[in-house]
């Protein structure tokens, strides 16, 4: 059985949404709350520590019911069941998609259990200091060498959960930029540093090159035999990791049914385990598991990922808004947007549908943003008074972690005030000059969470994973492949050969040749 392959624009719901959109153009969103007292209470979902308010959106009861009908007509329910049951829904790579199995505490696969146990034991040894480096000293620094999904998730989570971290310092080498590698190595002591080489394929040019540079740097101070105390690998390609010189017992396996951008729950999360300890890592998995159950079992009208997916489709495909922003009001979440960018845009940036046909409607949204309140002093001007419609997710927490209530109240006052100002604008206030007028009706979702802890972070990440999957199903695309990154890799191989040989005869593009000439003359 394969995923449903329904062109969403052929559904009854889509046609009705089109007509409804035209009707709604005249909808007075101004004063909508005072005209409809129940609105704020109807357009919300309370779930565990989460409170989603989606009332500040350009939607009515009819919009919602048509969007829900759309989800039914494209068989979203069936698609969700297929994903969770391990059907090979990543058809173009012929793989199952089972990152949810990594956190399925009811029915955990033996290989998942075994890997978690290995991660637990290893991270404990590193944390308590019983694992010694080559000169007999305990490890103080952990460096994750990996890129894309082998970097963004672990970095985002270790930053987000810094409050829960131990004495170990974590670092990330991702970019092939040699200056960055040199800067990172400058601050490290080979005697007390553990390197985790993370690459599902173990063929990624950046990671393998950087890992070799790091190994050479290490060997200036140590000998080959010491490698096993300082280098471990995370990979689905055990042979590749062994060839690199990492011993089998130092390889943490991952399965081909875990996609790179969904892999932080797997052994890719080893740097997270080292940084916050296994029990916190496990709490994060549990939070994700709870969100999985919510997504799988809750009716769509109260299902947070589904509601957010549908609202996003409403703006993307009917209002034709091209991007959406995410503003998390917590400095801890400053790496959330880059993480979401890979998860969402690598998944849903597709122009061919599941039937292999060229798509005639808009798919993947552009995701961008930064943390509040900083963002208010940067791009918020454009949200308030720009000409583009940019729906924004506001994410905030009721409790601060360090108990600084005064700052937190100011932070959160801004959080609540911004969504209100974006929605209300200045329509019922007297404004002397047009430059000071705000048209309002700028849509936002507010995700208010009790506290930033491992469990709630796990639920939040899983929420966005499921949102993007639901959108991919509705758009009739395959969200779990990423062929779009391959062409650039192939071209770069030829470019590198040309640079190394100082010979551009194989390069057809004149602009590139000019640039290379300039580059090599220096
Ligand atoms: O090039 C894109 C990509 O394949 C991502 O999907 C992936 O997260 C990243 O490269 C790293 O891949 P790997 O873990 O195999 O090194």
Secondary structure elements and their pairing?
Elements: H1 12-24, H2 32-35, H3 39-42, E1 44-47, E2 50-53, H4 61-73, H5 76-84, H6 110-128, E3 141-145, H7 152-160, E4 169-173, H8 178-186, E5 193-198, H9 205-219, H10 227-230, E6 231-235, H11 238-244, E7 251-253, H12 270-276, H13 278-297, H14 304-319, E8 323-328, H15 336-348, E9 366-368, H16 380-385, E10 392-399, H17 405-424, E11 444-451, H18 454-474, H19 486-501, H20 510-521
Parallel strand pairs: 3-4, 3-5, 5-6, 6-7, 8-9, 8-10, 10-11
Antiparallel strand pairs: 1-2, 2-11
Helix pairs in contact: 1-4, 4-14, 6-12, 7-12, 7-15, 12-13, 13-18, 14-18, 15-18
Based on CA atoms alone, the radius of gyration comes out at 25 Å
CATH homologous superfamily title of the largest domain: Glucose-6-phosphate isomerase like protein, domain 1
- Supply the CATH architecture of the largest domain: 3-Layer(aba) Sandwich
Bound molecules: 6-O-phosphono-beta-D-fructofuranose
Under CATH, the topology of the largest domain can be stated as Rossmann fold
Instruction: Name the average pLDDT.
Output: 96
Query: How many separate domains make up the residues?
Result: 3
Largest sheet: 6 strands, mixed
Shape: globular
Q: Unreliable stretches, pLDDT < 50, 5 or more residues? A: none
Number of helices: 20
Which strand order spans the largest sheet, edge to edge or round the barrel? 1-2-11-10-8-9
Structural class: alpha/beta
Number of strands: 11
Helix proportion: 40-55%
N-to-C span: 57 Å
Highest-level CATH class of the largest domain: Alpha Beta
Strand content: 5-15%
């Amino acid at each position: 059985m394969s995923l449903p392959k329904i062109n969403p624009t052929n559904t009854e719901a889509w046609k009705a949404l089109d007509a409804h959109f035209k009707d709604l153009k005249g909808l007075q969103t101004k004063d909508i709350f005072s005209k409809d007292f129940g609105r704020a209470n109807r357009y919300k979902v309370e779930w565990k520590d989460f409170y989603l308010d989606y009332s500040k959106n350009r939607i009515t009861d009819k919009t919602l019911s048509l969007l829900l009908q759309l989800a039914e007509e494209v068989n979203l329910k069936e698609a969700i069941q297929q994903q969770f049951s391990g059907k090979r829904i990543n058809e173009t790579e012929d793989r199952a998609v089972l990152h949810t199995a990594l956190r399925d505490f009811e029915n955990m696969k033996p290989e998942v259990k075994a890997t978690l146990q290995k991660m637990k034991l290893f991270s404990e040894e590193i944390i308590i200091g019983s694992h010694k480096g080559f000169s007999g000293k305990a490890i103080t620094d952990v460096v994750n060498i990996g890129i894309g999904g082998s970097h963004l998730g672990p970095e985002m989570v270790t930053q987000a959960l810094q409050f829960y971290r131990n004495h170990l310092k974590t670092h990330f080498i991702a970019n092939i930029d040699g200056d960055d590698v040199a800067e990172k190595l400058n601050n490290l002591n080979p005697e007390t540093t553990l390197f985790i080489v993370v690459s599902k394929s173990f063929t990624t040019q950046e990671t393998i090159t950087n890992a070799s540079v790091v190994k050479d740097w290490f060997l200036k101070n140590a000998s080959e035999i010491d490698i096993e105390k300082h280098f471990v690998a995370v990979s689905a390609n055990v042979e590749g990791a062994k060839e690199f010189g990492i011993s089998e017992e130092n390889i943490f396996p991952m399965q081909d049914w875990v996609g790179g951008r969904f892999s932080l729950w797997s052994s890719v999360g080893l740097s997270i385990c080292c940084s916050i300890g296994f029990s916190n890592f496990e709490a994060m998995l549990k939070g994700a598991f709870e969100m999985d159950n919510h997504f799988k079992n809750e009716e769509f009208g109260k299902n947070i990922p589904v509601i957010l997916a549908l609202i996003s489709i409403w703006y993307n495909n009917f209002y034709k808004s091209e991007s959406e922003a995410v503003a998390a009001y917590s400095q801890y979440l400053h790496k959330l947007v880059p993480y979401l960018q890979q998860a969402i845009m690598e998944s849903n940036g597709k122009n061919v549908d599941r039937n292999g046909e060229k798509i005639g409607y808009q798919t993947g949204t552009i995701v961008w943003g930064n943390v509040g309140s900083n963002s208010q002093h940067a791009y918020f001007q454009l949200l308030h008074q720009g000409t583009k419609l940019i729906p924004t997710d506001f994410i905030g927490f009721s409790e601060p972690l360090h108990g600084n209530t005064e700052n937190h109240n100011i932070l959160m006052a801004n959080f609540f005030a911004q969504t209100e100002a974006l929605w209300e604008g200045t329509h019922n206030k007297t404004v002397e000059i047009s430059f000071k007028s705000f048209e309002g009706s700028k849509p936002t979702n507010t995700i208010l969470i009790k506290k930033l802890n491992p469990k709630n972070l796990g639920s939040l990440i899983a929420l966005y994973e499921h949102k993007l999957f639901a959108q991919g199903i509705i758009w009739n695309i395959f969200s779990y492949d990423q062929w779009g990154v391959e062409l650039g890799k192939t071209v770069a191989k030829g470019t590198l050969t040309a640079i190394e040989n100082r010979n551009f005869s194989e390069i057809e593009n004149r602009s590139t040749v000019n640039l290379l000439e300039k580059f090599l003359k220096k």
